[in-house]
Design a protein that fits this description.
heterodimer, A: about 350 residues, alpha+beta, 12-stranded mixed sheet, 3-stranded antiparallel sheet, about 20% helix, flat, B: about 260 residues, alpha/beta, 6-stranded mixed sheet, 7 helices, 7 strands, about 50% helix
Amino acid sequence: MSVTTYKCLHCGAALQFGIASQQWDCGYCGSRFTLDELSTGSAVSAGTDTLMEFGEEVRAYSCPSCGARIVAAPVTAATFCVFCRNPTLLEDRLAGKYRPSRIIPFKVGRAAAIKAYHKLCDRPLVPRAFRKKEHIDHIRGVYAPFWLFTCSCRARAVLRCEKITSWSTPSSNNTKTDIYEEKRSGEFTFASVPADGSKALDDEMMRCIEPFDYTQLQPFEQQFLAGHLAECYDVAADNVLPHVVERVKKGVEAAFQESAQSYSLVTVQQCSCDIHQIEREYAMAPLWLLTSKHKGNTYVFAMNGQTGKIVGALPLSLGRALAWFGGVAAAAAMLIALVMTL
Amino acid sequence: MKNNQILSRTIVRLLFLVLVPLSYCARPGAIDMVEAVGIDPERGIYDHAGILSHDEANSLADVAAAMRKKHGMSFSILIERNAGGKRDMHFADDFFERYLLVSGQPNHGILLFINLEGRSMWLSTHGKAIRYFSDRTLDNMIGRIAVPLKRDSYHDGGQVFLREANRVCSDRQSRRASYAILGGLGLGAVVSGLLLLFHHSSRGRAPGARRYLAKGHSIAHKGTTFIRTFTTSTPRVKKKSGGFGGSSTHRSSGGRTFGGRGGRF
């Protein structure tokens, strides 16, 4: 098992994937390299070993740059040395069954993510601690493991359709409702339905930062991970398949409903789906993440690293809410009293 | 001798004919004569008919002065033998305008005018007193003031007037405090509610699987069956126009706006 760091071909400093340039930049001498140039043997390897701590499996490795012993979680595929900030890839988490077939590289930079977080937190009831610079500096770019499912589906449905017409007379308002039953069948293909492959990331949150633009999917090269964190999957494809099937069924129902647009109201009464030719693909997608703790609860800010779509639940500061209530109430009471005195 | 008697009678009659009209002119019911007497706008009690004792007038004046300080408006009582040929409303408004709305005095107030000969009264309001004393309130006050006036107890009538006016103003002020507190709390709750609503709207929506449906899917119609039809009818509700009680106003001869109501006793 080896640890890999991509180093500058000119000065030997660590390289990072540049989001703006979509190439690999040297932060020390300013050199820039393409993927082809990078595959000329710049990687440096060091040993790694496994140890147990606190009853949970963790892995330790030696930093190729400074030699410090770094501890990583079992799912960590790319990380930094906490001492020298050297970006490092753990190759055993990117090989074999853990090697993704495709990747969506980062398109939205860190500055844009921080700006979006500032905008999200620029609300009166958010605790001050969430807006502090030292807290925001913990925002990090992560390649998250995704399963992409492609499948075909034969389906039949019975739809209850209502045609509603309304008219008015001088004395009454009238509504006429005609009810029909429509039977339909169809052949569908769903392409690249995503499913979260990480236990650590909240499934609902991951669904909310969709969609990704799949036209920018690229064949996986581990060089893309340099300069960001990455995790390999720890939820197998078979485990997320039932969720995908459910999602596909809802998509089929939506398609049937859309096919009956001439009606005012359409509800699906019965729908049977035969899903077949299921293909799965392991991919990595970019996220900007900031995890915060507040009064024992965890709040996660996430941003789609490709489209910039953000998701973030924010805590409520009760003190600030009461201050706002009291301030507005007092000001309004004084204003009303003043107006009524005039 | 007889001629002298006739002459003296004629002179007396002439004197009578001249002096009687003059005496009417000299009576304090006329504004011009009142002006000659001199009005202290801070006193509040103007008994030109001389039916209140000195102590009675002073006690009413003290109450009126205290109320004036408390509510920031004048409370006045004008008692005349008649209205000098004018309508009560015009007489009261003219008095109000000429003698009470002078510099250094509150620009708001209420005046009770009592016309002794006409057995009538008029409540004239100006400035914010028009809002404080609605027509209905004034009618209620007139009804209460009329009770002692019917007994020719004018001091009691003045007391009732001042007490009622004080009650109306105090109610208004306590209502104002209640409205201010309730309004403030309401607005505070609305603003806080909006902030809360705005606060929780940061979560994006997951796209449906329909988004991942590839182009070229086919849907076939397998038949349409008519189930049933029904019609619902609801009567149209005509909007009714309505309104709240308020204060009717009019313009005085000087062009100012006054409110007021009158009555008899």
